[in-house]
């Protein structure tokens, strides 16, 4: 029997709610019905059910008509809103040209059950209150403009420096490629100063790429105000930033300013990923192969072949959800239970996770939003020589707004990591059960971790729940090392001669080498051996205690460089169509092995609590995000130097406190000690752990009593306290409640989740360990904060 596996390359006022099915309902055949009591929106096929359930009988019916212009009529783009025929604050269909089509909005009051219609406006026949309510709805701002103001680009203003900009006659000429920051070795996120022609790197995370801020430093030294981002220059313009005005600006004289340095705008062309054509040649194969450029593809229609619109950096969400709803267990749980989910959901179905999942699943699988064009439409396309598939797809705006609510990253409009979103989704599925069977069970498996003390040779076996198999990239196993060495020599020669770089050569890594790297022992940092009662060298190996029904594999292509800038390993790894990992089955305690004694480390009170080191690299990462420096120091301090991610969560939880940005004050011992408060890594006078640490462990889902006990047993060392909890599962039984409620699953990079209540046992399905590839999600680009995700799925044998 073969299971399936999926491959992740990782690389208050009145508001109109989106209809029950996630489509542009005002453009659809039935239009949008808005309940005049709850202001909820529904498609035509669900209005009767809502009426029967609630008894609400008055609805505002909104319909947008798309009308083809009469040949010979004057062209030109129409206003997006607010004219005699277009009054709804809705975006026009981007697939239809405003030169060929125009829009007309229609509004009616519909009274059920007879569907009696009253056209609007109708001041003479309608009561004043109804007229006021209708006008308020028709003039309401789109809820998406309210929820996501940052997603709507503001109009750039011309810089005050553009007209009178002084350019030095220093003979600088900018080559068409091979750029590098003049103060460091960075080759991305580079800015050309329009006064003296200096090429310098941008700010850290300024636009999704890392930098050392040399462009800003140069402005502070020289006062030269304008810079253009290299790689964005096209015949239509370029990205210009004003350091003095501290914002992106327009430069009406950009062509003249660029020509001063030998750049002809008319010869420049930008690519989808923000790089110039000359510069993306090394990456053309990645984009072209994954997106099948140049191949004549046949449009697919019907159930399971419905696309999702990109809301702007929402490709990570679209790719994951397409894969999720290709799994039968998720289809049955949400789409199969659609009537029951809707009928028993809260009055406002937009506030129910399962309803949102059912809506999206129905939209993707029903085929109602992926219909082939009529014969007349096909003839018209041929006559116009248009071959673009006429699939409107569905818009996941409401789904994204709900599923990312209260999540700092996913609620933003920045590009995100597909693997992190997958874990976030599984977390929500776990917390919102539907029916007796949880569909996320198909991904869950048990990992056995064997830790061995290298000196005493004694071992400890523990188990944890996981959802993703993370494979390291075994760079040392590249099969084309000679080609890589030759390419690097050519690249350096081209750089020295300021020529275009040679065609890229990627390291070819066998998948078997990545699997081997996963199975090899890894060193355990700061390991405390209970056998020696002291710190010692330790190694850890991981094996599968159970095999999931669907195996999700992540190739860990994203890493951090020595400069702490996130980067993507540009390698090629062939994924097999069939995978057998039975050799990774856990075997448990073996004959002749002796277990480490179950002894907690001794409690040692440090002489000077202020001597604790604070990880300055984590502090700077947080400060670069815009948080006060002292708040960042406190966050890293109170989370025990466990990294910027954990400290970031502390910041979010404490940023409303009045002393949030106050300097860090470390409690002292003796007479100078704060009453009942202990510093990090020390025990207070009343032997109570710091409340900050207790809160962190509670936020991970553990009971308060267990958190306090673990901290006391480990001298208030947060990391060791967590390990102590993991190694004392019997204490979870005594609590009688689940040890983990999944609330912070997305904050664990390895999805390290303890089992549910031990009395019931974890919901684990065990399979044979043999899998067949059914889908993969590919990332194109150099960073998790940029690029594009694409999903490929095997359906009907293809």
Sheet-strand content, in percent, reads 15-25%
Radius of gyration: 30 Å
Discrete helix count? 23
Average pLDDT, rounded to a whole number, is 75
What general outline do the C-alpha atoms trace?
globular
Characterize the biggest β-sheet: 6 strands, mixed
| Separation of the first and last Cα atoms | 20 Å
What is the structural class? Answer: alpha+beta
| Uncertain spans | 7-26, 72-85, 148-154, 205-209, 269-284, 385-389, 668-686, 733-761
Q: Which range best describes the helical content: under 10%, 10-25%, 25-40%, 40-55%, 55-70% or over 70%?
A: 25-40%
Description of the structure:
With 798 residues, this protein is an alpha+beta fold. Helices cover 26% and strands 16% of the residues. The chain is built from 23 helices and 26 strands. The strands form 7 sheets. Strands 1, 14, 20, 24, 25 and 26 form a 6-stranded mixed beta sheet that branches. A 5-stranded antiparallel beta sheet has the order 3-2-4-5-6, with no helix packed on it. It has a 5-stranded antiparallel beta sheet with strand order 8-7-9-10-11, with helices on one face. Strand 10 (240-242) and strand 11 form a beta hairpin. Residues 7-26, 72-85, 148-154, 205-209, 269-284, 385-389, 668-686 and 733-761 have low confidence and may be disordered.
